[in-house]
Amino acid sequence: MTPYRAEDRADWPAFLRLIQTAFAVMEGRIDPPSSMHGLTPDSIAAQARAGEVWGIGTPPVACVFLTPRPDALYVGKLAVDAAHRRKGLGRRLIDLAETPARALALPALELQTRVELTENHATFRALGFREIARTAHPGFDRPTSITFRRSLA
């Protein structure tokens, strides 16, 4: 399956379903709840305009959002359908993100994951990311997220 840049408005509901299904394992594990709950087809369309949305499969079985920031390309909403995990799809999307980052002369990829999702920490470390910060969501007096960065140098 080849990754593609998703730009067809008709695809947004399928991307939303994929993210909701893939992120369902977080329910009851993370606090505060995932920002995924605020996603809509319209917000995915806005993401596609402000950055990029990439998918694999029709309907999508893996996806990622890419958003340029001043010092890195932000990798968000990386999702892989449970039946397609451990096949390298997430790695393929992360590696693909290097191309737009380099085109924008950005030195790194950056992402965040929740403190509680230790399996994600291990995955991102295996993909060449290193922890650079811990932050708290508004109203929390403890870290709730970990920021990871992968240098492109």
Give the topology.
Blueprint: E1 3-5, H1 12-23, H2 41-50, E2 52-56, E3 62-68, E4 73-80, H3 89-103, E5 108-114, H4 118-126, E6 130-135, E7 145-151
Parallel strand pairs: 4-5
Antiparallel strand pairs: 1-2, 2-3, 3-4, 5-7, 6-7
What is the CATH class? Alpha Beta
| Overall number of domains | 1
Radius of gyration: 15 Å
- How many individual β-strands? 7
Name given to the CATH architecture:
3-Layer(aba) Sandwich
Instruction: Provide the low-confidence segments as ranges.
Output: none
- Supply the CATH superfamily name: Gcn5-related N-acetyltransferase (GNAT)
The CATH topology label is: Aminopeptidase
Count of alpha/pi helices: 4
Multimeric state of these chains? Answer: single chain
The 3D shape can be described as globular
**Helix coverage percent of residues?**
25-40%
What is the ordering of alpha helices and beta strands? EHHEEEHEHEE
DSSP strand (E) fraction?
25-35%
Lateral strand order in the biggest sheet: 1-2-3-4-5-7-6
N-to-C span: 28 Å
Report the average pLDDT across residues.
95
